[in-house]
Design goal:
The chain is an alpha+beta fold and about 725 residues long. It folds into 3 domains: about 300 residues, Thrombin, subunit H (Beta Barrel); about 55 residues, no CATH class; about 280 residues, no CATH class. About 45% of the residues lie in helices and about 15% in strands. The chain has 28 helices and 20 strands. Helix 11 packs parallel to helix 15, helix 11 packs antiparallel against helix 19 and helix 16 packs across helix 24. The longest helix is centred in the last third of the chain and has 42 residues. It is globular. The N terminus is likely disordered. The site of arginine has 13 residues, from helix 10, helix 12 and strand 18.
Length: about 725
């Protein structure tokens, strides 16, 4: 085992173990940091069973699914489980009005029916290693931040080069604790990942966006894929000759279920948390950034929903887009509510005043930490208005699809203007653009986009003083005298980017000089002006403040650890593999309300509403319910459990993560958090923060009894 830097060794040695719940821990340090507590809480396996680089361990069954989710192997033939919402885009891409897999579900009855998903990857961790001393080699406390950064980045390059010698692995080095610690990750990326099965949306997304981020929940949020490899079990591009990948380890699935108080742990890839930021940063989120994002998405979501309700084709086209933007929107609303309710700013201020007292208690401390808080106050004071402007630009300026799509043609202009570029390069890019036009327009509805454009442009103009806006927004307003309908018609009539025919005609007869036509396109013009404004007026300044905040955070993090010498610290989530652990537990969200820890199929029948897409219940499911035909998947209480909650600390990226029991068996698939606890990325509250998991028995029941795909369950290792 590698040595921790002295600071951390010290902290670990003097730990007082309290019940964790909060925390996302580094798998390779579970042995020294968490194992005793995990076992005291009920775990019957060892840290070594979870993470071991020499022998197969549970970690070999865990993967990054796509770009931002977790998945887990459940068979020795590369079969994997993740969330329905993680497979959503792939499912949607295979769907049309004729083959509506979103609505009807899809099940490959044998391997030949599994569907390829170009672009979808699965990433496995081969090993990780702490490289703090190598990364910080040559760094000392007297250097400037610029000098420090130069050394750190040169060291990182050298370590990466060394690690990538003689192999095809993907090497990553990530900072932990804001650059007080560094880890190297050696990853293997698989590119042939096929869709095996998905329940219909009225199971996989049951309750839709109404129930999203909420408990009680009844969503069967899972989908099934399979990883393929070449004949030697190595990653390969899609090929008919590929064979199912044989993982070093796959999870055993337990049908015992989760009982109140049971120990559980979650193994996966949490994306981002910011547990150690100062009050100024929380204030910025609460008052400057989240409100802008919420208000601008409100506008788009209303337009999408209205159109989706009235037309089945539009519903398919906009399903993933809508789910994507409404997920963040709802989370920010919950997060702001939680921040206020917990008085997170006041909590942080109390910590800061204790920190100031501590830092001023001694001259050496004062030198290192004394100036931190005023420096934060200053930096956040300047960052605040910039972040709000960035949020407007991203959500309103770039909100209409036509603007983002037009912007993607910037590459073509650059290539054509470059005297060195060859005709082959240009025709290759044109080929790619033709290809992407095909999939872009499959899901594009110009009438929706016109409404979005008109509403967002007008909201953007009205959001702040003219002098603070990008000039194009003001010019457009003045040119059309505030008539946003006229502005919209003019832009969409004149732009080629509103129509598949125009884009295809343009690309079909493409020659080098035609890039000038893009430059004159009104949608491209807006995209380009906004992009320039972003780089020149926002990004440069934002980047400078963010960098200085990063440096301050490194020192503040170190200070917080030194000051709270008895506290066990976990690093903020950074999309690296982590373990969170806790217990199955209900909670009291409000006065006199007590939430049970599990839901059942009866709840689905109670929520049924044939008129609302998200609450439709299939006849087949009703039939199974009426007959109580649950087979071995029913609970001993006679019901079929659908979801359960526990105190594991999770965040975005943990979607699809396995929920394991005391023996390391799979009992659930994580997919969400409860509404009252959505502020846990910033402040954790053990009484309110719960992760929501699909009960694995409901998942198996749907595969076997509902879909008749029992052969997939037979492929798994099921322990009764
Ligand atoms: N809130 C969950 C997460 O952040 C689920 C999102 C997908 N579901 C939805 N209804 N949009 O991933
Ligand atoms: N649904 C989230 C995801 O996409 C997980 C829920 C959360 O943020 O905790 O990862």
């Amino acid at each position: 085992m590698k040595k921790l830097i002295p600071l951390f060794t010290l902290i670990i040695a003097f730990q007082i173990y309290s019940r964790a719940d909060e925390g996302m821990w580094i798998p390779m340090y579970l042995g020294e940091m968490n194992e005793a507590e995990m076992q005291a809480m009920g775990m019957r396996i060892t840290a070594d069973d979870i993470y071991n680089i020499n022998n197969a361990s549970l970690k070999d069954a865990i993967m990054i699914f796509g770009g931002g989710c977790t998945g887990e192997f459940v068979s020795d033939q590369g079969l994997l489980l993740t969330n329905h919402h993680c497979g959503y885009r792939s499912i949607q891409k295979h769907s049309s009005v004729e083959h509506d897999y979103l609505t009807d579900g899809f099940w490959a009855m044998d391997k030949s029916e599994e569907l390829a998903n170009p672009g979808l990857t699965v990433t496995l961790l081969v090993r990780m290693e702490e490289v703090t001393s190598k990364v910080l080699d040559g760094v000392n406390e007297n250097m400037t931040e610029t000098e420090r950064k130069a050394i750190v980045s040169a060291n990182i390059d050298a370590i990466k080069e060394e690690a990538s010698k003689d192999n095809d692995y993907k090497i990553l080095i990530k900072p932990f604790f804001y650059g007080n610690q560094y880890f190297l990750f050696v990853n293997e990326v698989f590119k042939d990942v096929r869709l095996v099965g998905t329940p219909p949306s009225n199971i996989g997304k049951f309750g839709g966006d109404t129930d999203n981020w909420m408990w009680p929940r009844h969503t069967g949020d899972f989908s099934v894929f399979r990883v393929y490899a070449d004949k030697d079990n190595n990653p390969a591009e899609y090929s008919e000759d590929n064979v199912p990948y044989v993982p070093k380890k796959h999870l055993s699935v337990s049908t015992k279920g989760a009982k109140e108080g049971d120990f559980t742990f979650i193994f996966g890839y949490p994306g981002t948390t910011e547990e150690y930021i100062p009050s100024y940063a929380v204030d910025m989120k609460l008052n400057a950034v989240n409100p802008v994002r919420i208000a601008m998405r409100d506008i788009r979501i209303k337009i999408f929903l209205d159109a989706m309700e009235n037309d089945p084709e539009t519903r398919i086209q906009y399903a993933a887009k809508h789910a994507g933007i409404s997920n963040g929107w709802k989370k920010w609303i919950g997060e702001n509510r939680g921040i206020k309710r917990l008085k997170a700013i006041e909590q942080k201020q109390q910590l800061e005043s204790a920190f100031a007292d501590w830092a001023n208690s001694d001259n050496t401390l004062k030198e290192e930490f004394g100036g931190l808080l005023p420096a934060f106050e200053d930096a956040y004071g300047k960052l605040n208005p910039l972040e709000a402007k960035m949020a407007y630009l991203a959500e309103a300026g770039m909100g209409a699809e036509i603007i983002r799509y037009a912007r993607s043609y910037g590459k073509l202009i650059r290539l054509c203007k470059d005297k060195e570029s060859s005709d082959e390069e240009i025709s290759e890019l044109v080929g790619k653009l033709k290809h992407s036009a095909e999939s872009y327009f499959k899901d594009y509805n110009v009438d929706i986009d016109k409404k979005v454009f008109a509403s967002l442009m007008s909201a953007y103009y009205n959001s702040m003083d003219k002098s603070e806006l990008p000039s194009i927004i003001v010019e457009m307003h003045d040119k059309y005298k505030g008539d946003y309908q006229a502005m919209t018609n003019a832009v969409f009539d004149k732009s080629i980017f509103a129509s598949k025919e125009k884009v295809n005609a343009f690309l079909d007869s493409y020659k080098k000089s035609k890039y000038k036509k893009i430059l004159k396109d009104p949608a491209f013009d807006i995209a380009n002006d906004l992009t320039m404004y972003y780089y020149k007026n926002l990004l440069v300044a934002e980047d400078a403040y963010s960098k200085s905040i990063d440096s301050l955070m490194r020192i503040y993090m170190k200070g917080q650890i030194e000051m709270q010498a008895n506290k066990l610290f976990y690093p903020d989530a950074n999309f690296s593999l982590r373990v969170a652990y806790g217990n199955v537990d209900g909670y009291n969200p409000d006065d006199a309300i007590n939430f049970n820890y599990f839901t059942t199929l009866s709840g689905i029948m109670e929520k049924e509403n044939p008129d609302i897409y998200d609450y439709v219940v299939e006849d087949k499911l009703k039939e199974l319910y009426n007959k109580k035909d649950y087979g071995r998947y029913g609970d001993e209480d006679g019901s079929l459990h659908t979801c359960f909650i526990a105190t594991n600390h999770t965040t975005g990226g943990n979607s699809g993560s396995p929920v394991l029991d005391a023996d390391g068996y799979l009992i659930g698939i994580n997919f969400d958090r409860c509404w009252e606890g959505t502020m846990s990325d910033i402040v954790y509250d053990a009484s309110q923060c719960r992760n929501i998991s699909l009960d694995i028995r409901y998942c198996l029941f749907i595969i076997d009894k509902f879909a008749g795909a029992g052969h997939l369950v037979d492929e798994m290792t099921v322990v009764e």
